[in-house]
Amino acid sequence: MSTATEQQELRYIEAIGLGMAEALETDYRVVVMGIDVGAGEGIFRVTRGLHERFGPDRILDTPISEMAFVGAAVGAAMGGMRPIVEIMFMDFIGVCLDPIINQAAKLPYMTNGALEVPIVFRTQTGAGKSAGAQHSQSLEAMLAHVPGLKVVMPATPRDACDLMLAAVADPAPVVFVENRRLYARRGPMSEESLPLGRARVVVKGEDVTVVTWGQYVGRCLEAAEIGEASLEVIDLRSIVPLDMETVIASVERTGRLLIAHEAVQDFGAGAEIAARVGRELFDLLRAPVRRLGAPTVPMPFNPMLERTLMPDAAAIAANARSLVAEG
Amino acid sequence: MSTATEQQELRYIEAIGLGMAEALETDYRVVVMGIDVGAGEGIFRVTRGLHERFGPDRILDTPISEMAFVGAAVGAAMGGMRPIVEIMFMDFIGVCLDPIINQAAKLPYMTNGALEVPIVFRTQTGAGKSAGAQHSQSLEAMLAHVPGLKVVMPATPRDACDLMLAAVADPAPVVFVENRRLYARRGPMSEESLPLGRARVVVKGEDVTVVTWGQYVGRCLEAAEIGEASLEVIDLRSIVPLDMETVIASVERTGRLLIAHEAVQDFGAGAEIAARVGRELFDLLRAPVRRLGAPTVPMPFNPMLERTLMPDAAAIAANARSLVAEG
Amino acid sequence: MCLIRAFELEVAKLYRDGEIPGFVHTSLGQEAVAAGVCGSLREDDYLATTHRGHGHVLAKGADLDGMMAELFGKASGLCGGRGGSMHIADPGRGILGANAIVGAGMPLATGAGLASKLMGQGRVAVAFFGEGAVNQGTFHEALNLCAIWDLPVLFACENNFYAEFSDSRTLTRVPSVAERAAAYGVVGETVHGNDVEAVAAATGAAVERCRSGEGPALIEFETYRWHGHYEGDAQPYRPDEEASSWRERDPLEITAMRLAEDGATTEELEEVRADAATRVTVAVEAARTAAEPDPKEVFAHVYGD
Amino acid sequence: MCLIRAFELEVAKLYRDGEIPGFVHTSLGQEAVAAGVCGSLREDDYLATTHRGHGHVLAKGADLDGMMAELFGKASGLCGGRGGSMHIADPGRGILGANAIVGAGMPLATGAGLASKLMGQGRVAVAFFGEGAVNQGTFHEALNLCAIWDLPVLFACENNFYAEFSDSRTLTRVPSVAERAAAYGVVGETVHGNDVEAVAAATGAAVERCRSGEGPALIEFETYRWHGHYEGDAQPYRPDEEASSWRERDPLEITAMRLAEDGATTEELEEVRADAATRVTVAVEAARTAAEPDPKEVFAHVYGD
Ligand SMILES: Cc1ncc(C[n+]2csc(CCOP(=O)(O)OP(=O)(O)O)c2C)c(N)n1
Ligand SMILES: Cc1ncc(C[n+]2csc(CCOP(=O)(O)OP(=O)(O)O)c2C)c(N)n1
Ligand SMILES: [Mg+2]
Ligand SMILES: [Mg+2]
Question: Does D20 touch chain C (CB under 8 A)?
Answer without folding.
Answer: no
